[in-house]
Amino acid sequence: MKISLLQPHIERGDIINNAKHIQALINQAEGDLLVLPEYRLTGSLTLANSPDPFVWAEKCAREKAEFKIPAGKFLMINSLVMFADGLRNCCELIPTSDHYCKLFPDETEQKAGILPGVEYKVFSLGGKRFSVLICFDLANISNIPIPKLDFLLFIFHFTPQNIVHVMEEVQAASRSLNLPILVSSLVSDYNHGHSAYVDQNLVIALGGQAGILEVNLE
């Protein structure tokens, strides 16, 4: 199974333009599973200068419906998603209806009215079993019943101040679970990515430029 970690540069809040850059990388990617970081369509959520998050969710829904995913490929995309009972930070596996919502929203999200997810999710694709952790879910991993998996996706947005600490947490989780972790992240304020393959003490990362990190898993 080949996984493509997509790392476009974005403009915070410019959802239409960001979707165009994402589509360009989708068209280039060779993977069976294409993965995007947290808040990739919008940029990271801050209460100080963000539009209404409910408006962001509506705009994201329109753009996601327009993505053209090549036959046989799947896109794991994170965005704000409106459900019947409220707004959540959610990873959706397009073109399926499978999704996983962040179990532990951070303080900014809670203040914005974003609800926690209600259940952990295991995905099955190409003969592989995998799960997703979003942002603060990693710090609360001891409260999540991680089953036997082939790999784990970590969807996140870093700040320049905590990137080293969080990557250390990822390595510790990989060692503890004896499991490869694929990191797909937005670097807040810079609006470019940080993509990495982590297998215990092994770390392979793509730099800050736009691009794609392709990973083959046997």
From TrEMBL:
PROSITE patterns: CN_HYDROLASE. This is CN hydrolase domain-containing protein. Residues 1-218 form the CN hydrolase domain.
